[in-house]
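User: Hey, my collaborator sent me this sequence without any context and asked if I could get a structure. I don't really work with proteins. Can you help?
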Amino acid sequence: MRRKKRRRAAGKVAAKGYRKLAETIGGFADIYERVEEAKQRQMVELEKQRMQFAKDLEIQRMKLFMESQVQFEKLKRSKCNSPSGVVSRFALSPLIPQLPSLPGR
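Assistant: No problem. I've predicted the 3D structure and written it out in structure-token form, which is a compact way to encode the shape of the chain:
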């Protein structure tokens, strides 16, 4: 009789241990799920920022292209309207964009 009680008691202790282990594993799973969801949200936000940057860069490129075309047309007109038909070197300066200097230079 005592042996049966000891076995039952040992079985209850083991069952409590397994239950505690299962609860702990479940807690880790919940934490992992929250971390993965946060990581996914961050990836979506980074992709949105990348797309906005690419859009802004393309707009800037198009503006520079259009400004260059306008300057080119002005240059062609001034060449046609000048008496000698030669463009001075000062007329070319607007065609060269003023780029910001790079750090360390």
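In plain terms: The chain is about 75% helix and 0% strand. You can pass these tokens on to your collaborator as they are.
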